[in-house]
Design a protein that fits this description.
2 domains; Aspartate Aminotransferase, domain 1; about 35% helix; Aspartate Aminotransferase, domain 2; alpha/beta; four-stranded mixed β-sheet
Length: about 400
């Protein structure tokens, strides 16, 4: 008999009743150290006092009115994002998947308004842009994502990751946009080298194609800059944001230049819940905290501390770990044994991590995690690896 919750997840037999900072607690009082942060969502940890206050104050005033009306909280958050980024305009969604849908629509509408037949979008192997029909159509090489869901939507070409020649050959007079994650998350914590991002930007400028960055997982302070592309010094025309922007509340956004968004006029897109007062009040507080240069300096300092500890862990357990990669507090341990075994051993050590492609264990802690908690996390990973390496009688 099918369960009442559709079984589309292989859920771990763990359930949590409360959280504080980087710790979660089960109903029997067992505490787990969370190095996944809801898959890069809880950027300020669990039950962050500042977000609890923002949520409570807004909840006591107004939750939802719909986008038929002006929403001051939405305007405030949009203004913050415009002031802090390349963007001239913002549309708010509930998730990264919805942000991907709009980014695709926006790029195609841009060329339609110009009267040019350019609708194809180039994506990359290992990419993940969500699970809607449009988002999975963008990654047709991913059998896990697309098998059984055809026919896929046309108009997408997928090329090898970090292969400039393949990308250049794929661009045609039909190419509307290139869509890429500056750091792949689900694809295995793969940062695209900065020269490659700059080369993609130049290719787009030379051919007229729009550049779309998917910063759903790598954005909002995760790499030590407010957005990951800032390290390369290039900017996109359109950017997808979600996860961390809401600090745990469902919130996403599409940021765009005025030129890229020119075709998106009244009636071309909408969202019932996107940009509601509750979500935007929380998002505004998240951005106020995370965008502070002093906060980002701390993220980089914490990242350096954690990387040093993890490098030592890899050296100590060469039979379990192969290498460490990533940027900021978006790190991946490349495993020599199946990463699922490492994740399970970490559960046994009361530590939460996240698996990814390419046999990677992801570490995506809250951006305000303490050094003591990071050291404890590495100690627990050490115990997990030792348990895996110890022969069983």
């Amino acid at each position: 008999m099918i369960p009442s919750v559709l079984p589309t997840y292989n859920r771990v037999p763990l359930s949590f009743v409360r959280g504080a900072g980087s710790w979660l607690e089960t109903d029997d009082g067992t505490r787990y150290l969370d190095m996944g942060a809801g898959i890069a969502v809880n950027v300020l940890g669990h039950a962050a006092p500042e977000l609890v206050t923002a949520l409570t104050e807004q909840a006591q005033a107004l939750w939802h009115v719909s986008n038929l009306y002006q929403i001051p909280q939405q305007q405030k958050l949009a203004d913050q994002l415009v002031d802090l980024t390349f963007a001239d305009t913002v549309f708010f969604t509930n998730s990264g998947t919805e942000a991907a849908e709009l980014a695709i629509k926006m790029a195609r509408k841009y060329w339609h308004e110009k009267g040019e037949d350019r609708s194809e979008i180039i994506t990359f192997d290992g990419a993940f842009h969500g699970r809607s029909t449009g988002a999975i159509s963008a990654v047709p090489h991913s059998e896990k994502m697309v098998k059984g869901f055809g026919p896929l939507l046309p108009g997408f070409t997928q090329v090898a990751w970090d292969d400039p020649d393949a990308l250049a050959q794929a661009v045609t007079e039909k190419t509307a946009a290139v869509m890429i994650e500056p750091v792949q998350g689900e694809g295995g914590i793969r940062p695209l080298p900065e020269p490659a991002l700059r080369a993609i930007r130049k290719l787009c400028e030379d051919t007229g194609a729009l550049l779309i960055f998917d910063e759903v997982q790598c954005g909002v302070g995760r790499t030590g800059k407010l957005f990951a592309h800032e390290w390369s010094g290039v900017t996109p025309d359109i950017m997808m944001v979600a996860k961390g922007i809401g600090g745990g509340f469902p919130l996403g956004a599409v940021l765009a230049t005025e030129a890229a968004a020119a075709g998106m006029v009244a009636g071309t897109h909408g969202s019932t819940y996107g940009g509601n007062p509750l979500g935007c009040a929380i998002g505004s507080k998240v951005l106020q905290i995370v965008a502070d240069p002093a906060f980002l300096d701390q993220v980089n300092a914490k990242a350096g501390f954690l990387r040093q500890k993890l490098d030592a862990l890899v050296a100590t357990h060469p039979d379990t770990f192969e290498s460490l990669r990533g940027e900021g507090l978006m790190l991946g341990l490349k495993c020599k044994r199946p990463c699922g075994e490492v994740v399970q051993a970490a559960y046994d050590a009361h530590l939460l991590t996240v698996p990814a492609a390419d046999n990677i264990v992801r570490l995506l802690p809250a951006l305000n995690i303490s050094e003591a908690d990071m050291a404890e996390a590495v100690d627990r990973l050490d115990r997990a690896a030792t348990a895996l390496e110890t022969p069983k009688n």
